[in-house]
Design goal:
The chain has nine helices and ten strands. By secondary structure, it is of the alpha/beta class. Strands 1-2-3-5-4 form a five-stranded mixed sheet. The protein binds adenosine-5'-diphosphate and magnesium ion. The site of adenosine-5'-diphosphate (ADP) has 22 residues, from helix 2 and helix 4.
Length: 290
């Protein structure tokens, strides 16, 4: 991993790795975790145009009740990526994790790196924290709950699954993985159990294979079957299923007017509001969980 990070950030940045030796096993998909760390390393590189130091650390942390980032009490692996770069001001800090938020120019930033990393940690019942000040570098930490199997052997604390109000199962369809992950994160924050599909065809296979679906959220412009065609096909299988089409601004004209839509990019609150107008009253939420 350090080698991969090294080739990503280049020779002007010194890399340090500090892994505690009492590290318990954390629950995480290694590929997703690697992608998240790479994203954090790229951010660190971008913040150190004149070089500097990047420290990747992993340590065991005991979180007590009342954690400022609202982490559930328990044992976590805190995985952090720290840099000595230009840091973040208050305005950037406040929005850094928001999907599509970027201070980098058009074509340079997607605004999805931190949102993706946060999504990964949140899905596991953990979280992401940022410590940064202008001119003083930044430390981004992923808090990963210690895995359930490990907890039995671990006398340092207890991990309990986070309690989220359940709103049913959402099938989310998007061919772009980063966008899909960030939307999945928002839906999970709103209390949905999210099932993901990378194409209309895959979504139809999932639906026709049985399994409950309470909501379909689909991108419009995708290779193969587009969102509107998927919506029509799904409606014939599950009449009355709430369906939300997500489209880029330029594609709005191509989306059938009778289907609820949301234009990209959107924020958590906009998604929540849109869903509130379409979902049955019993499943409505007043506020996004975040
Ligand atoms: N290590 C860092 N140092 C300073 N600013 C950062 C750092 N990481 C993220 N940021 C800020 O947060 C914003 C969002 O980051 P991210 O979601 O990865 O999107 P992107 O890198 O595509 O802009 C960045 O545009 C930048 O302003
Ligand atoms: Mg980034």
């Amino acid at each position: 991993m350090a080698g991969l990070v090294g080739s990503t950030v280049g020779p002007s940045i010194e890399i340090r790795v500090e892994i505690a030796d009492d590290l318990p096993a954390a629950m995480a998909d290694p590929n997703q975790l690697e992608m998240a760390i790479l994203n954090l390393a790229v951010n660190a590189r971008d913040a150190m145009p004149d070089g500097g130091a990047l420290t990747i650390a992993a340590a065991r942390e005991n979180v007590q009740t009342g954690h400022p980032s609202r982490l559930e009490p328990g044992v976590y692996v805190r995985l952090s990526v720290a840099d000595t770069g230009f840091g973040m001001d208050q305005a950037t800090l406040a929005r850094a994790v928001e999907p599509f938020f970027s201070t980098k120019g058009i074509g340079k930033g997607t605004g999805l790196g931190l949102s993706m990393a946060h999504g990964l940690a949140a899905q596991l019942g953990g979280g992401l924290t940022i410590d940064s000040r202008p001119g003083e570098g930044a430390t981004i930490s992923l808090w990963l709950p210690v895995s359930l199997e490990a907890v039995g052997r671990d006398d340092g604390g207890r991990w309990a699954p986070p309690v989220v109000e359940r709103r049913g199962r959402a099938l989310l369809v998007d061919d772009e993985e980063l966008v899909r992950m960030s939307t999945a994160d928002m839906l999970a924050d709103l209390g949905y159990e999210v099932v993901e599909a990378a194409s209309g065809e895959e979504a139809l296979r999932l639906i026709s294979g049985g399994g409950r679906t309470d909501l379909l959220v689909t991108d419009h412009l995708m290779p193969g079957m587009n969102g509107v065609d998927l919506a029509r096909a799904v409606r014939s299988l599950i009449p009355g299923l709430p369906i939300l089409i997500v489209s880029g601004y330029a594609e709005v004209d191509g989306v059938a007017a009778d289907l609820p839509r949301l234009t990209k990019p959107f924020r958590n609150a906009e998604l929540a509001e849109r869903l509130n107008t379409m979902m049955p009253p019993s499943t409505r939420s007043a506020q996004p969980a975040r």
